[in-house]
Amino acid sequence: MTRDPVLAELGRDPRRERHPARVGRADVGSDGQRPTAVVVGAGIAGLAAATGLAERGFRVEVIERENYLGGRVGGWTERLDDGTVVGMNRGFHAFFAQYYNLRKLLCRSDPGLTRLSRLGDYPLIDDKGHRDSFRNLPRTPPWNAFAFALRSPTFRFRDLVRMDARAAAPLAAVSVPEIYRQLDHLDAETFLHRINFPDAARHLAFEVFSRSFFVAPHRMSAAELAAMFHIYFLGSSEGLVFDVAQDNFDISLWTPLAEYLTAPATSERPGRVEFHTGVRIAAIEPGALGFRVIDDTGATVEADAVVLATDVAGLRAIVADSPALGDDEWRTRVAELGSAPTFAVHRLWLDRPLHADRPSFLGTGNLDPLDNISILDRYERTAAEWADRHGGSVVELHAYAAADQTPVPAAGAWVRSRLLARLHDLYPESDQARIVAEKMLWRADCPRFAPGDFARRPGIRTPDPRLMLAGDGIRVDLPVALMERAATTGWLAADLLAGQWGGAGHDLQTVPSRGRSGLLRTLATRERRSA
Predict the structure, then answer these.
(1) Residues 45, 310: contact at Cβ < 8 Å?
(2) How far is CA 287 from CA 114, 272, 309, 519, in A?
């Protein structure tokens, strides 16, 4: 078995957890019988699964319904009314240092992660004008939390004293997956009121996390909120300042990875990947020796193994139209999966720059419908080139959980007008800028993490040992979330399939699976017993 050469270099936290690979063959096709795997979906989960399978010697067919790779982190080009070709994507994504398994994937085509750059800060501002910052905080818990509270205008030290310490103990002593048994029955808003968390600070300290799931706190599981707080703040010493892609996601991330996967086989990657974009899967038929994967044109691919790495709606549809897959209980769990509310991404090409002191990324609290502002030309090369040529700026406004479903045109117009009004209030110089071009995207394809969902969420394994699931909506009992959950489930799906042929796994890493403080863990245990 070979060790991952880059894994040891990912991460600075000495207490991060290492999950060693299963021992096995580096190339399951070295005997001349190279198995074929189909991966449905080319988002982060699907790309991680394809990479893991190819590196264990599978022939891999990746089938993606969109015309681009990356899923919700995909990038493509569009043409403005004046004929200019510009980069476009689904909106801002933060690549945190504790995303070990995602960074492991990106290292395959960019070993030094040179296509990512670190933001100096991402300030948060609320409706009262209070401004918080993560710049220059100590990285090690709990000193990062104390330093944040001491200098925060919204979270005063006296607020910390007034909190119900026993009720709040699970927040500071998270253990995964136990936290889901403790708190998954509660919504995040109820939990924060129960521990007497100050409202003003809640808008900044916690809605940042809940909005990352494209949902309001009253619809989000308290366990997911606590796990997020652990992953990003109290459970990791990697810090809260993150990286961003230096160019549109297709250029920075996925085109280079696709080139790595489709290149001639090597000893490190004896298998090879073929991509099929713009293809939708209609059904999957299991057989005695594998699967028939049928697309919506009626064409079929014969496969020894399958990974379903689609979004929630796509997974539900494929399983519903494939009656022989799985058993009744598993099919019911898949059918119960839900999606988060619709979110909006509004990208603007302006004819003048915003002030030089404006941050690249600004998070907001209690400023509905606006959740953050990104000034893309500050860090994204394609946007910067457009801004330089036109003396302008490229700005993106996000409205998470903007509607329960894709809005009618009138509602969409209202959201657009309110987003622009918020931009003009926060950055008054933008009110004088002319909008050269704009794009508004509405999407409703993020997984739901509502109270009570965790116990019923399907995991990576399915009733068929050669059919796996992967994605950020799939259960995995590790402290991971968002893009990192997608990457982790993709690697694990590949490793479980490789094991069917005696193949080795891949080394993985996570933040610690339980809180760092023994005292806080004891308090949390006492609170749970007394509840």
Answers:
(1) no
(2) 45, 24, 21, 54
Q: How far apart are CA 189 and CA 355, in angstroms?
A: 36
Q: Looking at residues 260-265, what average pLDDT do you find?
A: 97
> What SS3 class is residue 14?
coil
How does pLDDT run across 182-219, given as a tens digit for each residue?
999 999 989 988 988 877 666 666 666 666 777 778 88
CA distance 431 to 212: 28
- Domain 17-71+248-337+456-510: CATH architecture, name and number where available: 3-Layer(bba) Sandwich (3.50)
The single-letter code of the amino acid at 169 is A
Based on C-alpha coordinates, what's the Rg of the chain?
Answer: 23
Q: In the chain, where are the structural domains located?
A: 17-71+248-337+456-510, 75-119+242-247+340-443, 138-238
Prediction pTM value: 0.94
**pLDDT tens-digit map of 454-468:** 999 999 999 999 999
Tell me the residue ranges of DSSP E strands in 151-288: 243-245, 272-277, 281-286
- CATH says 75-119+242-247+340-443 is which class? alpha beta
